[in-house]
Amino acid sequence: MSKASSKKKRSAASRTASTAAKSNKPAKRKFRFPWLKLTAAISVLVLAVIIYLDASVRYSLNERQWQLPTRVYGRALSLSVNQPLTEADLLYELKLLGYRQGSDWRVPGSFSRESSKFSISSRGFQTSGSIVKPMRFELQIGNNKIISLQRAGGGLLTQVQLEPLEIGSIYPLHHEDRLLVKLEQVPQSLQEILLAIEDRDFYQHFGLSLKAIGRALLMNIQAGQTVQGGSTITQQLVKNVYLSADKRLWRKAVEALMALMVEWHFSKEKSSNRTLMKCI
Question: d(Cα 262, Cα 255) in Å, to the nearest integer?
Answer without folding.
Answer: 10
